[in-house]
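for the writeup, i need someone to sanity check this before i put it in the appendix. the sequnce is what the collaborator sent (i think, or maybe the updated version? ugh). structure was predicted straight from it, no edits. if anything looks off just tell me and ill rerun, i have time this weekend
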Amino acid sequence: MVRISNARLASTAEWDHYARECRYATFFQTPSWAKLWESYTNRRIRGDARVIEFSDGRTALLPFSCEMGGGGLLRKYLSSPAGTFGGWLSLDSLSEVHGGLLFRHILRNYRNLVWRVNPYNDQELKLGLKGAREDETQVIDLKSITDEDELKQKYKRSVRKQINKAVRNGFYAYKAESWNDWEKYFSIFQRAVRRWGEDPKDHYSLDLFRLLSEMSGESVVLWIVASRSNEIVGGNVNFYHRDHCVEWHASFLADYFRFGIRHLLVHHIVVDAWRKGYKWYDFNPSGGHEGVKEFKKTFGTVALRSPVIYTILENHPGLRMVRRMRRRLLEAMRR
């Protein structure tokens, strides 16, 4: 009978190999994504990938990260940082038995875990995910598209009208070419946060975008939409890995939405991804915002399941200690 014979720490080289070769891997499961968060959080979040070896010689890799809290007393595991697609990677053909063993190993050994199931790993989705919070991501299936006109026909008529409006008004899209483009994009993001009535300090800082700009290349792209007068009015941060192109962050100047700038930019990026042979354009889950989801559907998307599993330990001894310390501090402040 097949069993897990060993679980060991993976080297960065091993992690990179699994991420490059696994057919259902996404950028969110690469060491590059984990290292980004390690740098941004000053190692509060750090990569903790493990190789799982089976008794029949097959292997899998868990591309997890660990988040330290409570002054180092608490550990929370992230199947992938920032709530993105996680789960295991494998270069072997794994059976349902292997999948079940991995699932039980994860639940038993990662007792304080956030795991968003990878919608491209069919085996994960077949598991009995009891207690998982159901969620989905909206994607455009690019595999059967033969030309740009066929792609446009997947869109609703309103989307095509908005794209044409943006073009008529002189808006255009391009890849960010300098740190100056990233800085301007970040300022647009901060304006959007204030428009939502929130404090920019509660959101990602400029440091994260500086790190992303240093990663710019084939895998990380900031797409910009600009006016006829070359004013930057919005952008999208997209990640590319194997067959998968995914939006991760987007911000626009509200005054320009009426010109169809969001529609134009999405279409431009989708066409670019299709021409380069990517099979999926992924909008990413919508965070429960129905209006955002409806916008994505206008591009002829299909929904792929991406449930979220939580194994949070409410009675973890370290958590109890932190709570006691917090209570004592509050009591001392009241005196």
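The chain has two domains: 4-135+307-334, 138-304. The first strand starts at residue 4 and ends at 9.
thx in advance!!
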